[in-house]
Design goal:
single chain, mainly alpha, two-stranded antiparallel ribbon
Amino acid sequence: MTLPRSVSILLLCAGVVACDGSAEYNHHPGGDEPDPPSTSDSVKPAPARFSCDANAVPADLPFPRLSRTQLMNSLRFAIARALPNEADALWAKLTPTLAQYPVDRRTPAPGDLKGGFSRLDQSIQQTQVDVMYDLGKAVAQELTSTDARRNALLGSCASDSQTTNDRACLETFIRGWGSRVLRYPLPPAEVTAFADVAGTTPVDRAAVADVITTLLNSPWFLYRVEHGTTAGQPVSPLSAFELAAKLSYQFWQAPPDDALWASAVDGSLLTESGFNAQLDRMMKSPQLRSSLDEFISEWLRLEELPSLVALRNDPVYQAFVGAEMPTDAARTAMFEDVQLSAWNTLVSGGSVSDFLHDRRSYTADPFLAAIYGVPVWDGTGPAPLIPSQNRSGLLTRPALLATGTASTRPIHKGYLVRNALLCQQVGAPPPNASDRPPAPTENMTTRQVVSQLTSGGSCGGCHNNTINPPGFVLEGFDALGRERDVERLYDKQGRQTATPSVDTSADVWLYDSEQRVISNAAELSRMIDDSQLFQSCVAQHYFRFAHARVESTSRDGCLLSELEAVARSGAPMADLLKTVAQHPTFKQRSFQ
């Protein structure tokens, strides 16, 4: 059985490798919330983790495959350019076929037990090849299903009485639509090769469908093909069209729009001012949200939040939840609350630290709004400020606290803080470790049960010093993310047996000799922020997301150190994203 949202006692014996690692900006996304509370004994910033070797040459992916999201966006783009007035209806009709394309597999980075980004799945399976052919064929058949649709694609030359212009009619379509779909201007020889697929009946609907199917199964459609502009060189500048595609898929997860394409056509994208103008435009576009949402969701592993209704018939869960059972909509709202916190931080000029401390609610869901004690937010105007000072920001958002059960899972939360937020690795569990997460009993709290199971023997060192303390500090919130100062215990029939006080104090070690006894989430957030390990960790994760691979600290150190410096400086979060594109390696292709 798969255990939801738990790094169970599989983590009992684990070694930790800590990440090595001031604000010039002072911005709050909402504009009027107070500064985060400071501890009486602030943690010193950790040493920077990354350093630059100017002689090192970063590696590039040999043949970057579009992620599933990017591929679906590319297909939608192709349909919209072909038949803009019917695009939505066609997309809906094709949904069952689109759903057959395999989901990208997320593999944890070496040394991590969980996480990873779907962009890092660069494998190609036979299933993908087969389904992509079916998808290309299905799209082609829909685009040419009637004479009217074919005529909309090719123009009046496809239906006039002359046949001598049929070949030129098809080639014009390939040169226009095909170039935008494949993301580079097709040279005459390639236009001819694609047109030859139609044989002797260039404007016949079935023949045109064959051409479209071939275009949509071209490597240029399925991959980001980068040859560069200087053949035979170990490192080559990208062409304007290769750069446009790289920018667009990085930040929008879709092909270049008309403005970006035009800047490639006229060559302005290759100038510093033209490139920066396009980059700034992309940073301000709502299309950026797709990329940011995916990064935030996969970095913080939001999908690990299980259904909040799966145990709705369990008497203990019913008693724990109370009068109003959450819905699947509440679970979705918890995801969106975190994503919108990141988005509003970015568009308002906030920093990585501001995201960590953001105390606003971004939900229109009544159940989640009630947990926060605020009115629902309609998406306009300032989001409501959460009144409780115990809500310290990211660490106390229900998406990171809820479990879908009546148990809080402090081991899971401790691991999430260590691994996802601090980039500290926790080693593999022993083979005889239990896979059942600890749960409270009729007379023992969650903390007592976890401590009893993990504090002794060879496992005590890791759990006592590393995994458990951050999780225990967050015990001031229950398994739905509601604040609490007592833990309600139940028997198997859901009858309440006791209400002991919750102990949230813990001796939290961060790195080296930086260790403090703290007792609430606000203090934990401040410790994490002061250490700047969080900022270094965000930089490391964003590198992986942006480059679709795990970093090499030796070869990628220059960009990593720049990302780390931006994240630690308190600069706007958008600057962190832009740093990837502004680094010299973004505009070139390495063949070494």
